[in-house]
Design brief:
The complex is a heterodimer of chains A (199) and B (565).
Chain A (H helix, E strand, L loop, with lengths): L2 H7 L15 H30 L3 H5 L4 H26 L3 H31 L8 H32 L5 H26 L2
Helix pairs in contact in A: 2-7, 4-5, 4-7, 5-6, 6-7
Chain B lengths: L18 H6 L4 H31 L13 H37 L7 H22 L20 H4 L4 H29 L12 H32 L13 H34 L7 H14 L15 H29 L8 H24 L1 H7 L3 H31 L5 H27 L18 H34 L56
Classes of the chains: A mainly alpha (199), B mainly alpha (565).
Chain lengths: 199, 565
């Protein structure tokens, strides 16, 4: 810990250093954030499934989504999660620069994911499959868009965490952003079959 | 295990303190709690004024309302809508959960702040912005949103129907931001109670009100998610032109009702639980008796929280849902009264044989039990689908609703303010003025809503701007009841002047008190009044539960949690 940090330590609330459960406070908080996210995506996906059961013609609309691109993106996202796990492993070994490099790999994965997504969307919009075409497409764009925003947010936070980790600071955050990234992955695992495979 | 290098997370020390850094941008949980409370009080005055304006229109249709002017039909709708939204989202939530939670949680579990002080400040700032947006929406072109606080589509989804192209999306944006603020706050509360407890503060020694705030935060977190998703869809319908809720285009307006009430009904318990927690704290102190059945009360509040997720469709009995489903929801709705009744019995058992002192906080707490009972019992009529179909669109619903929410948002809040005022400001409220205010408020409250039960039972429809065009609904008897309710409302509002005067006068001039004016056990009373930054001179250790009053063979009739045996 640097000298400046020592000076400030006196003003850090005791509350932030306690751990009555034995679980680090930050990890607990991330879990609760994800719990609140689960119900947001749960509400969206649940509504989509309920409506889809009542609208057989949505299957015809779904036939126009690009399954291959979706499958490739699934592969990219899962691979980027592997990099996040390796970053966590490096952080556990107190190797900040190595953790930062792996996080860089995860960010790259997110970038590829978004590029493929952008290619898909522009293609679909060009062919008239816009958000207004049908409620199926409204759900498609809103669910994937909300998920995409989570990917972008994760990448931004990960860049900050990686910049810190490179200097050996706040290494515990590497695990936390990893947990979040796995969640973003898991949401995609639901979206992929519901919008790309079920036709 | 402690966290490494959290020092980086905290900004400057609090030594350099201007007015702004101390009261506006502070990360101190007590300051943030009071910010929430004062914002809530201001919003309550605005919401109360709105009630005055539309009640005047109902009692004296199409006449100039003093301090306002003529009420148009559109303004009437906007006033009713925003009165409801404000009182629930910008009064009950910030005062009961965010205000009390922030002020009390660190003090009651024996630590110096929340685990995320800056997140806490951010949550208030988002809340403040949401309140500003809501108030600005009233002045937007086309006026404020008038589609009721439930915002059912298709009325809410298209400016074609609601004529408020700005008011509706701004209203929705304000509500969404308010949700974000309380999600952040709720996560902070939950993690703080999980991790920052003082040594010895085991789960079964946590004061009930803290438990209740945490359970409420979790219920809120679990129920609001689907509505956040629904709000995104509604906002897109309003602004972009998607058709999520438009049946013509394959959407479904009922979907919103499900998403809304899946949140909306648990929300009742989100604000109810902290209110009952406040009542539990107060009756045990002023009956000088151990809280009866701590574990049962805890169990019933958890049960209430869980069952509250399975009752939502009782709001939709008249919306064309499957009658078989309606029966199911009738059963779950009637079931939820069991844990709550049990909780009320535990409170009454606490009072039984106690040495009851009828100080102002205790009066409010007892009034809560009595008035909420009326709200609960009349709820049975609305939870049962057979009677609800008759009552649903009448003033009976309005009266029932206010007999639950007024005890929660107003009576329990006054109980909390009068009880913790000495801790907040180091001075005592004037007891005589407090009693005047109590009786004035309680009597006039009942005089507002008992007439509305009667008009509702007589078939008076709600959500109507002027009854003059409906001869069957504007008989002399119904009109007299409407006038009575309106006059009682004005009396109630006038009595709040006594409270405000007492509050602000006592803040500066009230009789100074020591750390523990009520001889109470919980940890906040071991800190100085008002507690300084950091709360405790030495961090307390906890040796026993919070409700050890009248323990035999002890000289004192109370036994604070932090005093070693």
């Amino acid at each position: 810990m640097s000298h400046a940090a020592d000076l400030h330590a006196a003003h850090v609330p005791i509350a932030t250093r306690r751990s009555a459960t034995g679980i680090p406070t930050a990890r607990l908080a991330v879990w609760w954030v994800l719990a609140s996210e689960i119900v947001i995506f749960g509400g969206l996906i649940g509504s989509y499934v309920m409506l889809r059961l009542h609208h057989p013609h949505w299957a015809e609309e779904a036939a126009h989504t690009n399954t291959l691109a979706g499958a490739f993106n699934t592969f990219v996202l899962l691979t980027s999660s592997l990099a996040a796990v390796l970053a966590h492993q490096a952080a556990e070994a107190h190797d900040g620069p190595r953790a930062a490099r792996f996080l860089g790999g995860t960010i790259l994965g997110g970038l590829v994911f978004l590029l493929v997504k952008g290619f898909e969307w522009s293609n679909e919009i060009a062919h008239g499959f816009t958000i207004f075409r049908d409620v199926f497409w409204s759900y498609y764009y809103v669910a994937c868009g909300l998920h995409g925003l989570h990917v972008i947010a994760g990448m931004v936070i990960m860049a900050i965490v990686a910049a810190d980790a490179r200097r050996g600071r706040n290494l515990h955050r590497v695990e936390l952003i990893g947990i979040y990234w796995h969640f973003v992955d898991a949401v995609w695992i639901f979206l992929f079959p519901l919008f790309y495979i079920a036709k | 295990m402690s966290l490494p290098a959290t020092a980086h997370d905290v900004g400057l020390s609090h030594e350099a303190r201007s007015f702004w850094s101390r009261y506006v941008f502070s990360t101190d949980h007590k300051v943030i709690g009071l910010q929430y409370m004062f914002t809530g009080m201001v919003m309550a005055l605005i919401g109360g004024f709105m009630a005055y304006v539309f009640r005047m229109q109902l009692a004296f249709p199409d006449q100039v309302v003093p301090l306002y002017g003529l009420v148009t039909a559109r303004e009437y709708n906007a006033l009713v809508t925003n009165h409801g939204s404000i009182m629930i989202f910008w009064v009950a939530m910030p005062v009961l959960i965010a205000g009390l939670g922030n002020f009390l949680i660190p003090l009651m579990i024996g630590c110096d702040d929340m685990v995320f002080p800056r997140l806490n400040r951010l949550s208030y700032q988002i809340f403040f912005v949401s309140a500003v947006i809501l108030l600005l929406s009233l002045a937007a072109p086309g006026g404020g949103f008038g589609g009721a606080w439930t915002a059912y589509p298709p009325l809410s989804a298209s400016a074609q129907y609601n004529h408020t192209p700005w008011g509706a999306p701004l209203w929705l944006l304000a509500v969404a931001l308010e949700f974000v603020a309380f999600l952040l706050g709720g996560i902070n509360f939950t993690v703080t109670v999980m991790n920052a407890r003082a040594p010895g503060m085991t789960a079964m020694r946590i004061p009930i009100v803290v438990w209740m705030i945490v359970i409420a935060s979790l219920v809120f977190m679990a129920s609001v998610g689907p509505l956040v998703a629904g709000a995104v869809m509604l906002l897109l319908d309003q602004v972009v032109g998607t058709r999520f809720y438009d049946p013509k285009a394959g959407g479904d307006p009922l979907l919103w009702q499900h998403l809304f009430w899946f949140f909306g009904h648990p929300e009742v318990y989100v604000v109810l639980l902290p209110a009952t927690g406040v009542v539990a704290e107060i009756i045990t102190v002023f009956a000088r008796k151990k809280l009866f059945a701590y574990k049962t009360i805890l169990g019933t509040s958890i049960a209430t929280g869980i069952i509250s997720f399975f009752v939502w469709a009782h709001h939709q009995f008249v919306a064309g849902i499957d009658p078989r489903m309606a029966h199911l929801f009738t059963i779950t709705t009637l079931l939820i009264s069991i844990p709550l009744a049990e909780m009320m019995f535990a409170f009454i058992a606490t009072l039984y044989g106690g040495s009851i002192e009828l100080a102002t906080p205790m009066l409010w707490a007892l009034a809560f039990i009595a008035e909420f009972l009326i709200g609960g019992v009349t709820g049975i009529f609305l939870g049962a689908n057979a009677t609800d179909i008759y009552f649903h669109d009448t003033y009976f619903v309005v009266a029932h609703f206010h007999y639950t929410f007024f005890p929660i948002a107003i009576i329990a809040t006054f109980a909390a303010i009068t009880y913790w005022f000495p801790k907040m400001f180091g001075r005592r409220l004037n007891e005589t003025l407090g009693q005047w205010h109590f009786w004035g408020t309680i009597v006039s409250f009942n005089a507002i809503f008992i007439p509305l039960f009667l008009t509702g039972a007589a078939g008076q429809h709600r959500r109507i701007y002027s009854y003059e065009s409906f001869p069957q609904l504007s008989t002399p008897w119904l009109n007299q009841l409407a006038v009575l309710a309106t006059v009682a409302l004005i009396v109630l509002l006038i009595f709040q002047v006594i409270f405000l005067a007492n509050f602000f006068w006592s803040m500066r001039r009230g009789e100074p008190v020591g750390a523990n004016p009520w001889n109470a056990n919980t940890l906040e009373w071991s800190a100085p009044s008002p507690p300084p930054h950091g709360n405790f001179a030495t961090m307390p250790t906890v040796y026993r539960g919070p409700y050890e009053y009248g323990v035999p063979d002890r000289e004192l009739d109370y036994w604070p949690q932090h005093v070693p045996s």
